[in-house]
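Exercise 7. Given the encoded structure of a 87-residue chain, write a plausible sequence.
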């Protein structure tokens, strides 16, 4: 049984809109992750490494190769742990 001509235009429109929204969502999620695919099933160790990378590079996915393997001096004091001040 052939598809009526009147049904082709709405189905193409619906398919195109699904394609546009899917592509837009993919682009937005990749833009939020510095052009890399999103992470799935992240455990506590990976969350800790994400926080460490963010503190080192300023980006959640910033595992850039650095010329100097030594962290910035501010890295010693910008921990998320609250510490008591030593007098």
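Solution.
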């Amino acid at each position: 049984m052939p598809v009526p001509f009147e049904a082709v235009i709405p189905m193409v429109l619906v398919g195109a809109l699904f394609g546009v929204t899917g592509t837009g969502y993919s682009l937005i999620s990749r833009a939020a992750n510095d052009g890399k695919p999103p992470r799935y099933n992240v455990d506590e160790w990976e969350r800790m490494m994400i926080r460490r990378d963010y503190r080192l590079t300023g980006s959640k996915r910033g595992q850039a190769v650095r010329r100097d393997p030594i962290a910035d001096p501010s890295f010693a004091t910008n921990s998320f742990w609250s510490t008591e001040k030593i007098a």
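Remark. The mean pLDDT is 80. Students should compare their own answers with the one above.
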